[in-house]
């Protein structure tokens, strides 16, 4: 009996040791008051031109003319990384931003991270599935479905990640007589069954145009250019004539694949 008892005691101890060794490493906690300011600036352009709503005249890869009347998109889940591979993810409750071309102040995403020299920036274009499925009380600020931004599909219970509207002579005439295109791109993969997933993770290498030297006594700014012309070209050249209205349909994946490549690091101010 003693041998049997000793055997089970040793087995139990071994199981506890194995379980403790298999735990994931705990990410160090940071005093939020000790974090330093960092901003990420999203500067929207079209090719080499400044994006101007309503009056700007542009041409896509297919030679079709257009202007842009509305542009806005969600940026979320900001993470910075160091040369040694360590990363810091901004508190998710403080990491959702709606970039609106008609409101210049929204082009800055202000966050707080530990002091350090950061060589990479990662963020999501869109709203992740976890936050999309949380109770409404957990979705405040720019994520409030009733905020009036027009970035939520009530009929589809999901966020519009990227919205662009404008006029192109090549787009068919709509019921109001306008040659309008509307691209409302969303889809987080579905609640219980798989659906369209247009969430895109963007990683920016900061080493060639200036790493972010984050310190408590100053505010570093990572300046990105978002070339909206790339939304219409890349793996797919989007035609206003063939696809003037794209929302929650399979073709939206093509536009999402395009806009994943629209961000370029311009410079960093330290």
Descriptors:
single chain, 270 residues, mainly beta, ten-stranded mixed β-sheet, five-stranded mixed β-sheet, 3 helices, 12% helix, globular
Low-confidence stretches: 1-27
Q: Beta fraction of the residues?
A: 35-45%
Order of helices and strands: HEEEEEEEEEHEEEEEEEHE
Taken from the alpha-carbon principal axes, the silhouette is globular
Category from helices, strands and their pairing: mainly beta
Tally of DSSP β-strands: 17
Question: Residue share in helices?
Answer: 10-25%
Q: How widely separated are the two ends?
A: 71 Å
C-alpha Rg, in Å? 23 Å
Largest sheet: 10 strands, mixed
Mean residue pLDDT: 89
The total number of structural domains is 1
Q: What's the helix count?
A: 3
What topology does this entry show?
Elements: H1 2-21, E1 36-46, E2 49-50, E3 58-59, E4 65-81, E5 87-89, E6 96-100, E7 108-113, E8 116-118, E9 120-125, H2 129-132, E10 152-153, E11 158-167, E12 180-186, E13 200-205, E14 212-214, E15 220-227, E16 245-246, H3 252-259, E17 263-269
Short overview:
The protein has 270 residues and is mainly β. It has 3 helices and 17 strands.
What does this structure look like?
The protein is mostly beta strands and 270 residues long. It has one domain (41-269). It contains 3 helices and 17 strands. The strands form 3 sheets. Strands 3, 4, 5, 6, 9, 10, 11, 12, 13 and 16 form a 10-stranded mixed sheet that branches. Strands 1, 2, 7, 15 and 17 form a 5-stranded mixed sheet that branches. The chain is globular. The model is unreliable at 1-27 (pLDDT under 50).
């Amino acid at each position: 009996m003693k041998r049997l008892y000793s055997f089970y005691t040793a087995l139990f101890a071994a199981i506890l040791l194995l379980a403790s060794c298999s735990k994931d490493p705990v990410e160090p906690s940071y005093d939020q008051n000790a974090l330093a300011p960092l901003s990420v600036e999203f500067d929207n352009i079209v090719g080499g031109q400044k994006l101007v709503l309503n009056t700007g005249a542009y041409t896509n890869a297919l030679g079709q003319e257009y202007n842009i009347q509305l542009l806005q998109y969600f940026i979320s889940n900001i993470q910075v990384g160091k040369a040694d591979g360590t990363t810091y993810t901004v508190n998710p409750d403080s990491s959702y931003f709606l970039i609106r071309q008609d409101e210049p102040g929204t082009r800055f995403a202000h966050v707080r991270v530990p002091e350090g020299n950061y060589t990479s920036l990662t963020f999501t274009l869109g709203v992740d599935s976890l936050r999309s499925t949380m109770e409404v009380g957990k979705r405040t600020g720019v994520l409030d479905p009733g905020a009036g931004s027009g970035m939520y599909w009530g009929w589809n219970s999901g966020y519009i990640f990227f919205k662009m509207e404008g006029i192109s002579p090549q787009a068919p005439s709509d019921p109001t007589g306008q040659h309008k295109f509307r691209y409302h791109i969303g889809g987080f993969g579905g609640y219980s069954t798989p659906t369209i997933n247009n969430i895109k993770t963007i990683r920016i290498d900061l080493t060639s145009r200036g790493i972010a030297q984050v310190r408590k006594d100053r505010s570093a700014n990572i300046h990105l250019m978002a070339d909206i012309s790339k939304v219409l070209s890349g793996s797919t050249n989007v035609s206003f004539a063939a696809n003037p209205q794209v929302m929650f349909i399979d073709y939206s994946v093509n536009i999402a694949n395009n806009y994943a490549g629209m961000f370029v690091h311009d410079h960093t101010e330290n």
